[in-house]
Structures are given as structure tokens and as C-alpha cells.
Design a protein that fits this description.
heterodimer; A: mainly alpha; ABC transporter involved in vitamin B12 uptake, BtuC; two-stranded antiparallel ribbon; 13 helices; 4 strands; 73% helix; 3% strand; globular; B: mainly alpha
Chain lengths: 353, 409
């Protein structure tokens, strides 16, 4: 949650953040380009490598958007009750299974060409998955975490690990123990604007993610419930004294965070075309890294961190080191935690034991 | 574990001493004296307790319901594997139970210990160091990695440590998998040397067909680890761990160097895990990256939580019970349900065929449920340590009572 000081600071130098972002994106682009040129199996020239670099760049943004959506849930829950919700990655996984179940039940297996039908089905898939996951998040909070709010710190963490295993293994036992193919209903078209081209699916994911994040910012920043969330995050007791219903507010935070993970789950199915019961573990770890990178508790930071992780992953795979991407992300997590535990944009100091 | 657990605080005479004082029948007085003696000679009590357990287990499996499930030899082999998890659990207990740090990458140190043995005694490296010194080497190497990981991260708050260790636990198998030039990748390292002890167990001593030497070895290792950990728990360091767990700020202001103390807990836990890894590798004679996934860390955590964080005997019992449920219980349950010939139940579109359910698939679901339910209903575990129980149930009477006990002890 953005605090007042941060907003003042960023208002004072409005050009600094966009400039830094632009420079970072350019550097990332050239690193990707370099990786493609350095690939000995392709032997590309500078001009022939550019379309590929562009595609990889957009791929990175798309993957980053998925991580950003998951990271938002981590950071919101952490911001409000200081709990690493290990089950959050599994909620993302469950979301991907809900959309798989819905789309296959409705009888879709490939691209839908009718634009109106496509739009309708997409809205339906996102609505169902987000709602279902939101409810799951609230139920988890109610059953597993609420009673432990004042327990020793270890207790809710262990519970969260337990919940994550419960979710993962329910899917494992009940649905499938191997990789499931999900219907990719968005046609595989590439839109070209001059020399810039982008896949329809990438455009859709990026617009969706940015839209959801903007809506979240508005919700937290401008509405009464958002204000309740911010005040609960800053000081729970004081918020309660001011008449904020703490239980409802925390449940709402879980609902919103889990719904975003549910949306990310649908995107996972649409973009990659597969899902599997243990996908949430890795994704959760990476998204958590994104949240830490952005400064945990800070929603804008979490979104930024998600994109950084997306780029890191694509860059390591372009340079032929894809199998090390987890090690790279994890190394980054440790470095950030050790040298800058407040993250890129974080203000709260990680002071407690 | 059927042996009577000795009480857990230091001169644990508090309970037995009292029974010695009450005048009663001669056998009670004698028992009280034995109890008091063992209370003051803890190491002897541990050795006796473990010896009784180790002697009883092979006999118990010969009794009617159990002897139908397998031969004594099968059971002994299973107990040796259970011993590995007992070691893992009592090591993790130092980190989680004593110092209150959540280590979710514990299997990484297990893997490091196992691979250390693989480098020390296999055709892959060409070395042939005997098993016994390798036990020590494995423990030391694992402890070094513990320090390496802990030194930068133990300054952070507890839940960051949890996520960093989780990441570390993920990465170590990935490294063993990907650095195939040095680790032989997915196939792992095979043909690890079997231990030998001056031909004590015959020519075929430690072989695949004879589980007895492994069983006895693991009991001996557990006994040494028990004595070491009990002495440590009652030492200045043990008290420092409890102080940090309860209130780090207060502990620091009393002059405890919190980072060093936590690092010590972390590396001692890691070394126990490394020890278990060396033994495990020698028993299986093969190491590969997929043996050391997150599920191992998770299983060890479930064992510690179920057994009762902070109570060494309790945690060991928890580990043994959980391992046997996983290895025998679920299998037998499946066989039992299948033998009932329950007809397939159809509930609308869903049909449930109980006979074909593979109960072993449910193990992690059960562990997850166990963790959540334990934390909600009985956070002190099945066999709680006295101190934990007093912390977690803070009705004033109980607290006063247990404080009194602690003061007496």
C-alpha cells in the first residue's frame, strides 16, 4: 500500500521513475537481442534478429504480467496481516484448473473465431475463476488463518504450508496427477502496426493485467473499503477503534488477492495451453520474489517486480540458460533480501525478528 | 517408540524424584530410585531407552496383526529408513523447535550430505573413503552450507528466512540436476560403496539383502545424536535458543549474540541432516536429484509438528509414526478396503470406486491436514515438551503450575 510520503516523493520528481523504467526496458531489449545474436544455432544478422527480439520482449512482458497478478495477492495479504501466504501459488494453480474445467465442459478445445462469442466466453471464464478463487481465499482465511492471528509467528506460517499442500493434493487426487492440456480459445493471430507486431493473446493479457492493476489501485486508493484496507495495514487496533470492521476488511483483502491469482490462472491456461497440479509452487516462489523485489506490502512495487521477474526469466532462456532461471530468480531474492530488504519501492523496514 | 520417554528438562528428576519421596510399596520406592538415578545420568537413560526400543521393535513385528504384513526382514529395512527420518526430524527440531526458525529447505542439507558421500565413495569420483569418517565429513560439509546460507539471511525476520530456505531447498536439487558434468544429472551417481565394520556382520555384512547392520547403525547414530542434542538443549546455548524463540529483542538485550546463536542452531540442524544423508546414500547405494524435493522437507516438518516442537523424544516418535503410516499404514489400509469388495458407488455423474483408491496418493494431503489441524487445535504437538505446553495454554493456573515445575527443575 502506497504511503503518503512515497506519493509526495514521486510527485516531486515526476520524470525520474518513467525515465528509469524506459532505460531499464531498453537495456532489457538489447540484452535479449544480444542473446539471440549470440545463439550459435541460429546465426542471425542484426536485422533478421530484430523480429525475434521483439517477440521475446513481448513474451517477457506477458509472463511478467502473470507474475505481477500473483504477486499482488502476496503483497496485499502480507501488507495487512504480515503473513506469507504460501497457499497463494496454489490458488493460482486452482484458478487455472477452474478455467480448464469450465472451457472443456462447455465443449471448447481450440480457438474461437467469432469475436463476440470469444469475448463472452472470456468474460465468463474470468468471472467464474476469479469469483471461485476469491471465495476459496476467504474460506481459507476464515478456517485456517483467522484463529491464529495472535498466535506465535511460526503457527500461521506452518498452517499456510499445510493449506498449500492440501490444495495441491486435492487437485492431484481428484482431478489429475499429470499435465493437463487447456483450450487456447484466443486465435493465434499476429497484429501488425507498421514495423511493430504483437500477438493477439499477448495484447489481450497485457491489457487485462494493466486494467486489473489500475482497477486495484483505484479500489485501494479511492474507495471507502480501500481506505479501510490501508488503515488496517498501518495499524489494526487504531483502525478498529475508528470503526473499521477488521474481519471483513481482512476477508476482503483475501478475496481481492485470490481473485487476481484466479485471473492469472486463467491467463496461464490461455497463454501456455497447459496446467499441472504442482505449477503453483514454482510460480508462487517467483511471484513472492517479485513482491519482495517491489517492496513487500507495496502494490505498485509488486507489479513492477512481476515484470522484472518476467524479463529475468526470458533473458536467461534467450541466453540458453533457461534451466537456470529458477536459480537466477532465487539468487536475486537472497540478494534483495540481504542488501535491500525494503525492495525497489518499499518503505516499511523489515525490522521484526 | 515404545520406550518410556525420560522427562525432558535437565535433571529431569522433577517427576520421578517426587515419586521417590512418597512412601509406598517397595517396588515403587525402587522404581523411584531408578528413575532418579536415570534422571541424573541422562545419557545412560537415552541409551537404555533406545536400546529397549531397538530390541522391542523386531519382536513386535512378529506378533499377529503385524506379521501378516511382511517378513521381519522387510520391517527391519523399513525401520532403518524410518531411522533416517528420525534423524531428519530431530535435526529440524533444533531449528524449528528450539530456536523457532522455520526452515523449509531442510532437504537441501540432506541432499548435500548424500552427495558428499557419493563423491567420497563411488566409481564416479574414483575415491573410496570408508563410510565412518564420511559420516563426519558429510555432517561438516552440510553444516558449512548451513552457515553459508544462514549467515546472510539469519539477520532477516523469521518469515523471510522461511521463504529463503524454501528457495534454497528448490535450488539445490536443480543444481544437482543441471550441473550434470559434476553430478551425472538425472541419472544420479550409482554404485556407492556399502559400509563395512571389520567384517563384524560377516562378508555380506552391509548388503542389500541384510538390513540388520543398517538398522543397528542407524540406532547407534540416533543415540549419539540424542545425547548430543540433549546436552546441547540443557546448555547455555540451548537456553539462548529458547530465549531467542520467545523474544529476540529481550534476548539480545540480555547480551545474547542472536545472529551467532541462530547460526549455530541452523548449522547443527543442517549437520544432522547431512549425517542422515550420508547414511541414506550408503543404504540406497545411489543418489539422484529427485530424491530430495520439497516433499522431504515438508514431511520432516510434519513429523516435527506432529511429534511436538521442542521435545526430542516426541519428535522422534512423531517421525517414526508418520514414516510407518506412510510406509505400511496406507498400503495396508488400501489392501484392507480392497478386501471388503465394496461395490462402486455412483453419485450422479461421479462414481466412487473405493476398491481402486490408491491411499498412498493421499499421504501429502493427510500431512497438510495434519499440519493445519495441529496448529489450530493442539499446537504443542502430540507429545509436547513441558515448556511449550505452558506457553501455548496460557490459563493463569496452568501457567503458574508449569512455571513452578520449571523453577523446581
Amino acid at each position: 500500500m502506497t504511503s503518503a510520503t512515497a506519493r509526495r516523493r514521486s510527485l516531486a520528481v515526476p520524470w525520474r521513475a518513467p525515465l528509469a523504467a524506459a532505460v531499464a526496458l531498453m537495456v532489457a531489449y538489447f540484452v535479449i537481442l544480444g542473446g539471440i545474436l549470440a545463439d550459435p544455432s541460429q546465426q542471425l544478422t542484426f536485422t533478421s534478429a530484430i523480429p525475434q527480439a521483439q517477440a521475446q520482449f513481448i513474451n517477457a512482458v506477458t509472463i511478467g504480467a502473470i507474475y505481477a497478478l500473483i504477486a499482488l495477492g502476496y503483497t496485499m495479504v502480507y501488507g495487512i496481516i504480515e503473513l506469507i501466504n504460501f497457499a497463494h501459488g496454489e490458488i493460482f494453480m486452482c484458478g487455472s484448473f477452474v478455467s480448464w474445467w469450465l472451457l472443456t465442459t462447455l465443449g471448447f478445445s481450440g480457438a474461437i473465431t467469432d469475436p463476440l462469442l470469444l469475448l463472452g466466453i472470456l468474460v465468463l471464464a474470468f468471472a467464474v475463476s476469479m469469483l471461485a478463487m476469491g471465495v476459496v481465499g476467504v474460506v481459507i482465511e476464515r478456517l485456517a488463518y483467522r484463529r491464529l492471528r495472535n498466535a506465535p509467528r511460526l503457527a500461521p506460517l506452518i498452517t499456510a504450508i499445510g493449506v498449500s499442500f492440501i490444495l495441491q493434493n486435492i487437485v492431484f487426487v481428484v482431478v489429475s496427477n499429470s499435465i493437463v492440456t487447456t483450450p487456447q480459445i484466443i486465435p493465434n493471430t499476429v497484429l501488425t502496426f507498421g514495423f511493430f507486431s504483437i500477438g493477439l493473446i499477448n495484447l489481450f493479457v497485457i491489457i487485462l493485467a494493466v486494467g486489473l492493476m489500475a482497477a486495484l489501485q483505484l479500489f485501494i486508493g479511492r474507495t471507502r473499503l480501500g481506505r479501510a484496507m490501508r488503515s488496517t495495514a498501518i495499524d489494526r487496533d487504531a483502525a478498529q477503534l475508528m470503526g473499521v470492521d477488521i474481519n471483513t476488511t481482512i476477508a476482503l483483502t483475501f478475496f481481492v488477492g485470490s481473485a487476481l491469482a484466479g485471473a492469472a490462472g486463467v491467463v496461464q491456461g490461455l497463454y501456455f495451453g497447459i496446467t499441472v497440479f504442482n505449477i503453483g509452487f514454482q510460480a508462487g516462489l517467483k511471484a513472492f520474489t517479485a513482491a519482495v523485489l517491489g517492496g513487500i506490502g507495496n502494490t505498485t512495487g509488486a507489479a513492477l517486480g512481476g515484470f522484472v521477474i518476467g524479463f529475468l526469466e526470458v533473458i536467461s532462456s534467450v541466453w540458453g540458460q533457461g534451466r537456470w532461471s529458477e536459480a537466477v530468480v532465487f539468487g536475486m531474492l537472497v540478494l534483495v533480501l540481504v542488501f535491500r530488504p525494503t525492495g525497489i519501492r518499499g518503505q516499511q523496514l523489515a525490522d521484526r525478528a | 517408540m515404545s520406550g518410556e520417554p525420560p522427562t525432558e528438562t535437565s535433571p529431569s528428576g522433577a517427576g520421578s524424584g517426587r515419586s521417590g519421596r512418597t512412601a509406598g510399596p517397595a517396588w515403587r520406592v525402587a522404581l523411584g530410585r531408578v528413575g532418579a538415578y536415570l534422571g541424573h545420568h541422562q545419557s545412560l537413560a537415552i541409551v537404555l531407552g533406545l536400546a529397549i526400543t531397538a530390541a522391542a521393535l523386531p519382536l513386535i513385528v512378529l506378533l499377529p496383526p503385524l506379521n501378516g504384513f511382511g517378513t521381519q526382514k522387510d520391517f527391519i529395512g523399513g525401520f532403518a529408513d524410518a531411522g533416517v527420518f528420525v534423524l531428519l526430524a530431530i535435526g529440524l527440531n533444533v531449528v524449528v523447535g528450539f530456536a523457532g526458525l522455520l526452515d523449509l529447505g531442510y532437504a537441501a542439507f540432506f541432499a548435500i550430505g548424500a552427495y558428499t558421500y557419493a563423491y567420497g565413495a563411488s566409481p564416479f569420483s574414483g575415491l573410496d573413503v570408508p563410510f565412518w569418517p564420511m559420516l563426519l565429513v558429510g555432517a561438516i560439509v552440510a553444516a558449512m552450507f548451513g552457515v553459508l546460507l544462514g549467515a546472510p539471511t539469519l539477520r532477516l525476520r523469521g518469515d523471510y528466512l522461511a521463504i529463503v530456505t524454501l528457495g534454497f531447498g528448490e535450488i539445490v536439487p536443480v543444481v544437482f540436476l543441471n550441473a550434470d558434468k559434476y553430478t551425472n544429472g538425472t541419472n544420479g551417481i550409482t554404485g556407492l560403496a556399502q559400509p563395512s565394520l571389520y567384517g563384524l556382520f560377516g562378508v555380506n555384512g552391509f548388503g542389500f539383502t541384510n538390513p540388520w547392520p543398517y538398522f543397528l547403525t542407524v540406532v547407534a547414530i540416533i543415540a549419539v545424536a540424542f545425547i548430543f542434542l540433549y546436552r546441547l538443549q540443557d546448555s547455555r546455548i540451548g537456553r539462548a535458543w529458547v530465549a531467542i524463540r520467545e523474544d529476540e529483542l529481550a534476548a539480545a538485550s540480555m547480551g545474547i549474540n542472536t545472529v551467532t546463536t541462530k547460526l549455530l542452531a541452523f548449522s547443527i540442524g543442517a549437520s544432522t541432516s547431512g549425517l542422515a544423508g550420508v547414511f541414506y546414500a550408503s543404504k540406497l547405494s545411489i543418489v539422484s536429484p529427485d530424491q530430495f524435493g520439497f516433499t522431504v522437507s515438508f514431511t520432516a516438518l510434519a513429523m516435527v509438528v506432529l511429534g511436538g516442537m521442542g521435545n526430542i523424544w516426541g519428535v522422534a516418535a512423531g517421525a517414526f509414526i508418520v514414516y510407518e503410516i506412510q510406509a505400511q499404514g496406507l498400503k495396508q489400509l488400501g489392501a484392507f478396503v480392497q478386501s471388503l469388495h465394496i461395490p462402486t458407488v455412483a453419485l450422479g455423474p461421479l462414481s466412487v470406486d473405493l476398491g481402486s483408491i490408491n491411499f498412498i496418493n493421499f499421504q501429502y494431503l493427510l500431512y497438510g491436514l495434519a499440519l493445519v489441524l495441529m496448529m489450530l487445535l493442539r499446537p504443542e504437538g502430540l507429545f509436547p515438551s513441558r515448556r511449550r505446553r505452558s506457553e501455548l495454554h496460557e490459563s493463569p493456573e496452568e501457567a503458574a503450575e508449569s512455571n513452578e515445575e520449571l523453577v523446581q527443575a
